């Protein structure tokens, strides 16, 4: 059974039973609803009676089937009764149709262009937090944890003694089920480089030395192939390098980071990973380092806050420090990689880096003169976008931002791979939400209200009172005519066009062509980018 890894699965099953044996013997249940139902069953003599039998349950499935087939349940029922549905019923059904259509478009967009964050999020939400094998529960006691860790270490020693046999049974690695099961508790040599050293000057040395030490070989012949020939290297085994530069880091990482997850996994229980003490101490030390960027940001924020509160800075100094603040939060420059730049091609979904680059170019061209600014997409997504539900620390810089905002503020954000735009008018004290696929004539939509509430929630959570917090915002509708999105990939292009027209005081045209506008954006970004003459593209 050990050869085919069946014994490992049996051992894991018995381990789960043994860890829950006390609660199983006492027939305990951690589900509050089931415990409540148990008490109710005792009170009504062990029977659960349905006191509402008037075909209510049968009517609900019939209504659901009718709605799915016709999308007009109320109208169909009225027609069956030879009655004419009133205007309110028709309005409700039309609103539901539009909402369903928008949901289908969003689902299609999310299915086609789901990013890594959405993938991880979907994987996590597939497991129920309150039921099953991976439900949320407290960590193991220290004594129980040590006992399990000791058993795993003894198991590793046994595998070390049987390594020749295991090597035979785990060949072909990823295609071999035995290898997949065995490597769950191992720290393989392919990960040594990232653990021991993060500098680009020693790309292969750690990996080669680890292979030499593990296989007990004395030397290695390394051949590097190039289009013009090969270059051989003779590398000898270096025990001092292993003992000083590799073994301590690997041992510390395995015992403090990997072993706790193997013994008592928090990932499976949908809980945050344990932070070892040496990592926490390193973070604190880095933040307190006088040369660290975080400390410089905090000092710059404090200087700007003091100047704004005391009103001691002149207009020129305040303008200069405002530009420093813009540089600090991403308005000075944006690194646009080739794969991100190529999304500006036809029929490609626009990402946040493209929109941020577009913002920077327009800000320095004309928006700065027109008293217009835009918040970077990464920050807006944390306030109202996909990542708004992630818990944020109270020390987050956007909670402590004391900044004099200009008249018009743009906030592009992304939800379910669909871009929308928020327009804040400081002078008029208005909050305006623009969705490329929704007509403004339909009134304030549900998503617009939800985003408005998230924005107000962010302002209420701020630790300071800035220009945005001091305003009683009024939610308004964009009444001017504008081009509407007609496909599933150009939402970002329409959002950039809206910002361009509103920021430059230009009337929008209904014959707007998103593919032609992609070419204009590409030319603007290329003409405003830095020269690549002194940059290495390797």
From TrEMBL:
Q: Which GO terms describe its biological process?
A: proteolysis
InterPro entries on file: NF-kappa-B_Signaling_Reg, Papain-like_cys_pep_sf, PDDEXK-like_dom_sf, Peptidase_C48_C
Q: Which domain of life is it from?
A: Eukaryota
Domain named Ubiquitin-like protease family profile is located at 334-502
Q: Which Pfam families match?
A: Peptidase_C48 (PF02902)
Coiled coil stretches, renumbered: none
Q: Mind telling me which SUPFAM superfamilies this protein's record contains? A: Cysteine proteinases
Q: Which family does it belong to?
A: Belongs to the peptidase C48 family.
Protein name, as recorded: Ubiquitin-like protease family profile domain-containing protein
Q: Which organism is it from?
A: Trichomalopsis sarcophagae
């Amino acid at each position: 059974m050990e050869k085919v890894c069946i014994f490992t699965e049996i051992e894991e099953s018995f381990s789960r039973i043994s860890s829950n044996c006390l609660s199983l013997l006492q027939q305990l249940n951690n589900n509050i609803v089931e415990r409540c139902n148990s008490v109710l069953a005792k009170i009504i003599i062990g029977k659960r009676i349905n006191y509402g039998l008037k075909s209510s349950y049968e009517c609900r499935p019939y209504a659901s089937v009718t709605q799915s087939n016709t999308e007009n349940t109320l109208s169909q029922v009225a027609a069956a009764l030879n009655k004419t549905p009133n205007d309110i019923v028709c309005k409700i059904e039309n609103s539901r149709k539009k909402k369903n259509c928008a949901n289908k478009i969003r689902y299609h967009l999310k299915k086609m262009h789901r990013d890594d964050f959405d993938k991880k999020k979907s994987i996590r939400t597939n497991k129920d937090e309150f039921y099953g094998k991976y439900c949320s529960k407290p960590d193991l006691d220290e004594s129980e944890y040590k006992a399990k860790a000791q058993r795993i270490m003894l198991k590793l020693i046994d595998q070390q003694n049987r390594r020749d046999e295991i090597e035979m049974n785990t060949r072909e690695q990823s295609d071999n089920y035995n290898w997949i099961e065995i490597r769950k508790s191992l720290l393989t040599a392919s990960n040594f480089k990232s653990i021991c050293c993060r500098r680009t000057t020693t790309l292969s040395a750690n990996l080669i030395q680890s292979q030499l030490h593990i296989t007990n070989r004395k030397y290695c012949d390394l051949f590097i192939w190039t289009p013009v020939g090969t270059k051989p290297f003779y590398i000898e085994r270096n025990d001092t390098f292993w003992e000083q530069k590799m073994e301590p880091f690997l041992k510390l990482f395995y015992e403090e980071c990997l072993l706790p997850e193997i013994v008592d996994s928090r990932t499976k229980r949908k809980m945050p990973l344990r932070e070892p003490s040496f990592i926490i101490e390193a973070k604190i030390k880095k933040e307190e380092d006088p040369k660290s960027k975080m400390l410089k940001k905090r000092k710059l924020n404090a200087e700007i806050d003091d100047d704004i509160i005391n009103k001691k800075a002149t207009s020129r100094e305040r303008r200069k420090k405002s530009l420093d603040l813009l540089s600090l939060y991403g308005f000075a420059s944006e690194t646009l990689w080739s794969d991100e730049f190529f999304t500006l091609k036809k029929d490609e979904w626009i990402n946040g880096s493209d929109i941020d680059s577009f913002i920077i170019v327009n800000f320095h061209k004309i928006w700065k003169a027109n008293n217009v600014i835009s918040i970077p997409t990464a920050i807006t997504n944390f306030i109202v976008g996909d990542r708004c539900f992630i818990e944020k620390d109270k020390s987050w810089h956007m909670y402590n931002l004391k900044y004099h905002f200009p008249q018009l503020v743009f906030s592009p954000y992304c939800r379910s791979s669909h871009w929308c735009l928020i327009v804040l008018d400081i002078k008029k004290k208005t909050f305006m939400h623009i969705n490329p696929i929704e007509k403004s004539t339909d009134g304030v939509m549900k998503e617009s209200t939800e985003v408005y509430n998230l924005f107000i929630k962010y302002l209420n959570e701020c630790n300071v009172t800035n220009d945005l917090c001091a305003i009683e915002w009024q939610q308004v509708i964009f009444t001017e005519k504008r081009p509407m999105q007609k496909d599933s990939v150009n939402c970002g292009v329409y959002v950039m066009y809206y910002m361009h027209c509103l920021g430059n005081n230009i009337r929008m045209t209904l014959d707007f062509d998103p593919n032609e506008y992609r070419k204009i954006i590409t030319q603007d970004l290329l003409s405003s980018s830095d020269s690549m003459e002194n940059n290495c593209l390797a």
